[in-house]
Amino acid sequence: MKNADIMRLICIWFMVTAHIGSNVRDAIVSDQGVFLVLFDGLSRLSSPGLGLISGYLAYLSLTRRSYVDLLIRRARSLLWPFLLWSMLYVSLLLAVSFLQGEDLDFGLLRSNVLWGLTSWPGNYPLHYLLDLFKCTALMGGAFVLLTSLGASQRTVTGSLLILSLIVFASLTLHDLNAGHPGRNQDSFLPRSDLQLFFSLGFVCADKSFRMFGALSTRPMLLVILAIPFVLTSLVWYDLLQNDILSLDYALGVILHFACRFTGAFLLFALVWRLPTPSANVGLFLRNLAFNVFVSHFIVLSALNSLFDLAPLMAYSPLVYVLALQLAFVLVGLSITLSHHVAGRIDLVRRPTSWRSLPEHQANHR
Description:
Layout: H1 4-28, H2 33-40, H3 46-62, H4 67-99, H5 112-115, H6 127-148, H7 153-178, H8 192-203, H9 210-216, H10 219-241, H11 246-272, H12 279-306, H13 310-315, H14 317-349, H15 358-363
Helix pairs in contact: 1-2, 1-3, 1-12, 1-14, 2-10, 3-6, 3-8, 3-11, 4-6, 6-7, 6-8, 7-8, 9-11, 10-11, 12-14
């Protein structure tokens, strides 16, 4: 997929904006529509974008390696960072309790606050990593099973698409009835919207992503995508401003998904038009996006604990958001550069095998 690393970085930026917005949304719902559209419009494109990319990459991986190998690789890239940063968050909670002279609640080490198995962890953005692994395991397993039974490619992708739509509808209805849409609490299954976006990326990976290249060269189609994105954003904003009944809320959820789909497709098409970065730049962008994601909630919690940010938010919500985003980027950049420096040092210290020397390779060609 062209410019996937750029798209991933933009989606992470939108996601952390959504998490900042969750702290200030109530204060700006009444009279600051521009910021609300930013928080609940643009920022909500992160889940479709990241889900589509992750599903696409999972499908490509299954065409090149075994299902077990894919799960091992995803465990290293998703589960290990999840456990590391979740443990860091819980450790900080225990440290704060200790410094304040409170009783230490070691039950946190056995609860969803750390593990996030049936509800979001304390460091709640990390649930995304765990849900991506669940999506990979479930969708990849279904793909391998249907393929082993001799089903054609068209039958496999069609069956998986229908199944994902049924699961999405069931989970969404369950969440709405339980009063926590999108959270899928008290269940081991992944978040309903992420499951849908991941599945679409997976089943459409072999051919359909070329449509973004076609869209990017047709300005009129981009305008057609932009119109429903703007309209659904405005209607969703209007629903958030007013007291909403259950029927209106269900309508709002539908409109919100329409906003996310059209906006994500529009964003993919626009990013497709950008120059493709080199491999090294792409790797840097990928690592930066990931490090900003895994660290931003701890940074946000620390800043809220150490400083009174209410005056800054009262002065300007936009300045408040930009200041926090700058802090997230600086921390993520520091982690990325430290990993790069550590990798360089390890490379220098690592003894060079005589088999890798140029003269040896020249003699054995």
